[in-house]
Amino acid sequence: MARRNAPEINAGSMADIAFLLLIFFLVTTTIEKDRGLVRALPPEQPENVEPPIIKEKNLFVVIVNKNDELLVEDKPMEMKDLQEAAIAFLDNGGVPKGQEGYCDYCQGERDPSSSDFPDKAIVTVKNDRETSYDTYITVQNELVGAYNSLRDRESQRLYGWKFTEVKKAIDEGVYKGNEESAKEKLDVIKKMYPQKLSEIDPQS
Signal sequence span per UniProt (predicted)? Predict the structure, then answer.
């Protein structure tokens, strides 16, 4: 009895089909952009330099637990109130008038138990390892928003424009005007309210 050969499947076009499907999915698939934070690393400190002494009242401590709940200055706080609390701390100006270190542009309550001067005010964030990424980003945005709000206020008072709008226009290359002069003014505002935002290693 004659032996039959099994019919072969023509797979010559399979590679072409797979390639076309790959192109189709690449063109039609929407890839979400990850949200991130822009941070500049501090300059490297020389060795054998003692860290500066920081008064406890010049620290604004934000703790986020594993349930995404906030504890600000040892008190529970809602996310919606975080930016306002940070502004009050940064803009406090606790040194009395006539004394060294008095802030003549601060508009806070000038509480002697809170921050002395914007340059001395430090915001510290401590997260739990199980803190959600969305909450982490929201906390960072609220704190940066506090700095931007104060910077906008002062740039509006001194120059008639908002810090965030001019900075964005320069970063995007669409600023119409004397860019060098604008950058110098931005630096002045940054020195008035320097962004001192630190993070403590997450706790397990």
Answer: none
* pLDDT in the model for residue 16: 77
Closest C-alpha to 114, from 156, 138, 142, 85: 85
pTM of this prediction? 0.77
For 98-113, b/e burial (b = at least 16 CB within 10 A) is: eeeeebeebebebeee
Tens of pLDDT, residues 147-184 = 999 999 999 999 999 999 999 999 999 999 899 999 99
**What would the DSSP string read from start to end of the chain?**
-PPPPPPPP--TTHHHHHHHHHHHHHHHPPPPPPP----PPPPPPPTT-PPPP--GGGEEEEEE-TTS-EEETTEEE-GGGHHHHHHHHHT---SPTTSTT--SS--S---TTS-S-TTT-EEEEEEETT--HHHHHHHHHHHHHHHHHHHHHHHHHHHSS-HHHHHHHHHTT---S-HHHHHHHHHHHHHHS---EEEEEEE-
pLDDT over 90 (residue 112)? yes
Lookup: tokens for 127: 């997260």
